[in-house]
Amino acid sequence: MTATAIYESADRTLTVTGDGLPTPVSYGTFPNQNNPNSVTEQDFEHTFLYRGGQFGTPRQFDDNVFSQTGFVISINISLADNALFSSGLIVPGDNLLFVFSDGRKQKFIFRGPVFTSIAGECWLAQDDRLDLIVADPQTIAYGEGRTYTYYDQRNGRTATPLGAIGIAANGVVFFNPSAGNGGNPPVGFNWNAHFEGSPVDFGDDSCGGHPEQTGQYHYHDTHFLDCWKANAAMANYNDYYGGSQFNGDNLRHPDGHSKLVGFAFDGFPIYGPYGYDDPWEATQNTRQMLSQYRTRNIEVDGRPDYGNTPQNPPAGSLMQDWEYIEGLGDLDYHNGRFCVTPEFPNGTYAYFLSTQESDVDHPAFPYMIGSSLRETIDQPANNGAAAPAPPPSGGDGEAPAPPTLQITAQPQNVSANSGQSVTFSISAQILPENGPISYRWYRSTDGGFAYAQVTGATSNSLTFTALAYMSGYRYKCEIRGPVGAPTPAENSPLMSDVATLTVLGGGPGQTGADLSFTSSTFDSTTQTFDGT
């Protein structure tokens, strides 16, 4: 197993497990001249809140009724609301998304108390009124019950940290491009570990990754896309990437929009570099999503002059060389945007990989995620790298060995006629002394990309009636134990192999995307990946 993720719809959490290796994608040879570390297997598990299909934390001012006269939507604000602006929770330059009860969604750039008449901007026209400028004039009277919800950026002020900030669909974690204090940078500065013109080489491979001191392999930039495409590696690895394509590109949907490539640990999905031309229109018009970062024309204070040596590195070599300029491209300073996507037709916030304009094969800063994340990040302990080895156990007064779960009979593939009863089963035990085991069955309707728990399936067998549309469904079982014991098995929970159902004969039925056996449907809210 390389990577698998399970989504729990009840609390909207995504649990990602894996061994940290970039299978099936190849990676470079380590250690090498510029990187002394070797790639090692990592036991990775992390659970975080998944926000796919959401825009962030919803908010309202005290009076959430809006009115519109011509090109101006007026929002009443109270004295308490006004404190949001004076305290810095909402500051000039912020992107505010307003979702109106009449169905409209629009992002506005806040200009503070400075007058603006530009569509897509808003300003504090009075202490008690916020004016939003739109391109579609109409008149909406007060008191007609039209309300709004807005989303601000107050949770996205903290700088993107070093270490694991997300995870790719093949189980490799994403790091930001900073090398931290590595490589002896100028005092007060940090190297951009993956700037192509940098005078310092950190030993990254052609996939934009390398191992750090623990042996954990990770990606820093977008070159991993090239490796995923090579020999259709990801298409052969996962049905989500192999089931459809755009002009031979399996990492794009048939309409040209990029597919999901992973998840950020603040809960939002990460897409490849292509999105819809209009963020709120799902059409065949797709294009490259461009970053709005650029290198500074003038060095920041204290930086050595631009040059071509480690003592005077070229512009872009240091993290502090980059600045965000609104209006240069499509992506905000988190390197994402509010939009609809094939997975989320009702809208979501999503990150997009940034590549050079008209040259999608070359990364563009900040590559994956910008100077801060959209929401508060939930980083895994130790970056998800393997924990230190457990202490010795057994004999000579040492602590007894912890119990271990063992699957003695894995679920097997089943073929059946439509309407026939089928059963998947698993057998397991606990060593060295057996004990009670709990069971949870999961089902995927899309070839293994997404799994959800089968409601009520908590025994060592799962029995149901096979119907025609279920052909290709995949099943697996998670076991835990010993139930009720103070010390769980060292490998608990343990996931079984995947078994596939084949239904013989045709017949009407739902499509494979339906997950109506759970409390939600994966059409716009939940996505997981599986690499078994």
Task: Report what the structure shows.
With about 525 residues, the chain is mainly beta. It folds into three domains: about 1-60 and about 155-390, no CATH class; about 65-150; about 405-505, Immunoglobulin-like (Sandwich). About 5% of the residues lie in helices and about 30% in strands. It has helices at about 80-85, 225-230, 235, 240, and strands at about 5-10, 15-20, 45-50, 65-75, 95-100, 105-110, 120-125, 130-140, 150, 165-170, 175, 210, 215-220, 260-265, 270, 275, 285-290, 295, 320-325, 335-340, 350, 355, 360-365, 405-410, 415, 420-425, 425-430, 440-445, 450-455, 460-465, 475-480, 495, 500-505. The strands form nine sheets. The protein has an eight-stranded mixed beta sheet, with no helix packed on it. Strands 4-8-7-6-5-9 form a six-stranded mixed beta sheet, with no helix packed on it. Strands 25, 28, 29, 31, 32 and 33 form a six-stranded mixed beta sheet that branches. The longest helix has 8 residues, at about 80-85. It starts with a strand and ends in a 28-residue tail after the last strand. The model is unreliable at about 390-395 and about 510-530 (pLDDT under 50).
